[in-house]
Amino acid sequence: MTAKRIDGKAAALSIRQRVAELVPEFVAKAGRPPGLATVLVGEDPASAVYVRSKNRSTAEAGMVSFAHNLPDTISEDELLQLVIDLNADPQVDGILVQLPLPKQVNSTRVIETIDPGKDVDGFHPMNAGRLATGLPSLVPCTPFGCLSLLKSELGDLSGLDAVVIGRSNIVGKPMAQLLIGESATVTVAHSRTRDLPGVVRRADIVVAAVGRPEMVRGDWIKPGATVIDVGINRVPTDDGKGRLVGDVAFDEAAQIAGAITPVPGGVGPMTIAMLMRNTLVAAHRREGLKDPEGL
Ligand code: NAP
């Protein structure tokens, strides 16, 4: 069997187009465009690429981006002050602080300082708690994007066996909460899990968020399962440029799975699309408007 390749690029484009359609309606009601503030600390090339692309997508959707690029020598107090200022800025609906942050800055303190209503990454404990208790919240973009792909592919997820590999606050845990919310039967695996291949073999849905290149092998996959590969790993190549691979051995898994996301072109584009969606939703809520429909 050869799995269907899930096209995250196309799905992301349609979400971004929907956001762009809804922005003028928001502007008509609020008298201003939605605004996203991005905070990039230091020179990490991968982080710089992500943040540039987030700023570009924001502008393409007709929203305003406020880019703050800071040196990696910044103190924690200076960064906290910037977040406090952005919390108070009426033009800013979303605040995205690109992680990781330099050693002298406590990321948890920074995240906890962001106004939960502007926390478009969904990392604030208030949003994590609201997601866990089934209340409206801002949901972390990557797992939200994974859920959207799964629902488009499978429709109703209720009763399906799902295995999430990874328990980070950014991907694994919120992914598990979202799947519980859809009434899937969820197992969260991690580095201490015994017999991981055996656990994965039971799953109708596999979400791999590990950060280990091609760790999930084809013979771990239940025939016909839907596989969502969150991993982004650069592996060396002979030409020295390197190549991106996921956490799943794609060629092997595609022989067994029913559907699978590629890397790149799967989950990655959905993350930015969901950031655009969260920014628009945050803007509506800040203005006391109903959440936009069709997102
Ligand atoms: P993370 O914080 O490093 O968490 C990795 C998780 O994998 C941990 O829970 C860890 O278990 C588990 N793990 C590590 N080795 C394992 C093993 N041998 N067997 C089973 N579980 C193992 O990473 P993350 O931030 O969640 O990111 C995961 C991957 O997704 C990375 O490749 C990252 O680049 C990618 N990512 C992609 C996007 C996107 O937009 N596509 C966004 C975010 C992240 P313990 O908890 O026991 O240590």
Structure description:
The protein is globular. Helix content is 42%, strand content 16%. It has helices at residues 8-30, 45-60, 76-88, 107-113, 125-132, 141-154, 172-181, 196-201, 250-256, 267-286, and strands at residues 4-5, 35-41, 64-70, 94-97, 161-165, 185-189, 205-208, 226-229, 233-235, 243-245, 259-260. Helix 6 (141-154) packs parallel to helix 7 (172-181) and helix 6 (141-154) crosses helix 10. The relative contact order is 0.18. It is of the alpha/beta class. It has a 6-stranded parallel beta sheet, with helices on both faces. A 3-stranded parallel beta sheet has the order 3-2-4, with helices on both faces. A two-stranded antiparallel sheet has the order 9-10. It binds NADP nicotinamide-adenine-dinucleotide phosphate. Residues 142, 165-168, 170-172, 189-193, 196, 209-212, 230-233, 267-268, 271 line the site of NADP nicotinamide-adenine-dinucleotide phosphate (NAP).
